[in-house]
Amino acid sequence: MTATTVPASTPVRVDLGLYPEIQRFGATDISACFSCGTCSATCPMSQSDGTFPRRIIRYAQLGMKEQLLSSKELWTCYQCGECAETCPTQADPSEFMAATRRYAIASYDKTRLAKTMYTRPAVAAVLAVLIALLFAAFMYSAHGPMPGQELAVFTFIPEGLIHTTGLVVMAIVVLAGLVGVGTMVRDIGRKEGLSAKGVLGTRKGLARTGRALWFAVGRESLGQVRFREECESDPVAKAVPWYRRRWLVHALVVWGFVGLLAATGLDYGLALIGVKETGTPVPLWYPVRLLGTVAGASLVYGATVLIVDRYRKANRSVTGSTTADWLLLALLWVTAVTGFTIELALYLPSAPVWGYWLFLLHVAVALELVLLAPFMKLAHAVYRPVALFFVALAAESKEASS
Questions:
Q1: Is residue 133 part of a domain?
Q2: Beta strands, E only, 146-213
Q3: Burial 265-282 (b: 16+ CB within 10 A, else e)
Q4: Which of 96, 158, 216, 265 has the greatest number of C-beta atoms within 10 Å?
Q5: What is the distance, to the nearest Å, from the Cα of residue 21 to the centroid of all Cα atoms in its chain?
Q6: Do 149 and 103 share a domain, yes or no?
Q7: What number of other Cβ atoms are within 10 A of residue 368's Cβ?
Q8: Could you tell me if 218 and 385 are in contact, meaning their C-beta atoms sit under 8 angstroms apart?
């Protein structure tokens, strides 16, 4: 990454309320920052860019909103906390970067729901409970009998209603995500001087795009390579037992969430083509069930460790927490634990009555988790790969010109 300069002919609009606004998203007081460069020297993600992350801080201090929101580097921070630990003025750049990403998510969101989730904790908590109750009431309004011989959850809540509601929720999420990502791509593309023709219009451009996509999605988002390298190179992080290291826990949550979505989709697809009926017990070795079991266990473990570490402030990356942080972890944990428990209850000799109510809770919370995904920290799963794609393109261009 190289420092981005603004051409002299380009007018820079200054927003004096930018920094106070970012503080509403959890940023600490960075007025003490005098750009000494200590954070840049200690940051394992700075690579050859001697201005990261202090350039982002300066954008906020000077009210340069457009430059801040169009900075791909904003998303390369993994909040290891090393910069906060070494900052001579205790300005806590790590927490500032986290708050700025929350601000960016809210800025990309046109519904203003993300801003409410981050800046109005009481309203966010009440809204989360209401959404879950509405989903539960909607599903329960169409409920059927509760057979006592076996746990027939899709007799209790019709399978078709769940899938139809899920498709509507997914459509809303995809639309909100496309709007946010489109805004982000437009802003970063303008700042980087990129065009669709340059990225996709030539054979060389397509090759660069393919390599950048592999770097962003395959290597970094799914493979967690840089995250893992950061943990392995940091003596403090390396001292943590391997089964509690940040990169591994993060990877288990990501892969667990993706695995459960895949298992749900495959189960539904197999039902459509008549291979098996949705929700019917199958042997443990059955591929879809095995995938769901492994993914569910991964998500339960990862979410539990994240909750415990955040509560105990067990590492320097979780010194501060917002209501939205806790809400996301709670939704992930409840979704995973209830789903995992229901999966086990399906194999009990007689249907436990609590299994039906647990299934209703699971469906309501899972739908809420998906619906709120673009408006909370889970949006990182989309915004970070997009930013890393531009990081890879910039590195390709630098190599080509050198």
A1: no
A2: none
A3: eebeebbeeeeeebbeeb
A4: 96
A5: 22
A6: no
A7: 25
A8: no
Length of the chain: 402
Domain boundary among 57, 92, 108: 108
Q: Is 213 helix (H, G, I), strand (E, B) or coil?
A: helix
Among 108, 130, 155, identify where a domain stops: 108
CA 375 to chain centre: 10
Give the pLDDT band (50/70/90) at residue 168.
very high
Same domain for 386 and 278: yes
Rounded Cα distance between 200 and 210, Å, is 10
Residues 263 and 203 in one domain: yes
- Dmax over CA atoms of the chain, in Å, equals 76
CA 207 to chain centre: 28
Is the pLDDT reported for residue 363 higher than 90?
yes
Which segments of 213-336 are extended strands (E)? none
Mean pLDDT of 333-341: 92
Q: Is residue 191 part of a domain?
A: yes
- Residue 109's pLDDT is 93
Confidence of residue 331 (pLDDT cuts 50, 70, 90): very high
* 272/169 same-domain check: yes
Are 157 and 82 part of one and the same domain? Answer: no
Alpha-helical (H) ranges within 87-192 are 93-108, 113-119, 121-140, 153-156, 159-192
User: Is residue 3 assigned to a domain?
Assistant: no
Q: For residue 9, is pLDDT > 60?
A: no
CATH code assigned at 251: 1.20.950
156 belongs to a structural domain: yes
- Could you report the per-residue pLDDT of 228-275, keeping only the tens digit for each? 777 666 676 677 888 888 889 989 998 998 888 888 888 878 777 777
Residues 167 and 316 in one domain: yes
Tokens 């390396």 belong to: 238
Q: Tell whether omega for the bond before 241 is within 30 degrees of 0, i.e. cis.
A: no
- 164 and 257 in one domain? yes
For 36, the domain range is 18-108
Work out the pLDDT band at 94, boundaries 50, 70, 90. Answer: confident
Nearest Cα to 395, choosing from 168, 302, 387?
387
**Residue with token string 């593309």:** 189
On whether both 72 and 201 belong to a single domain, the answer is no
Total number of domains in the chain = 2
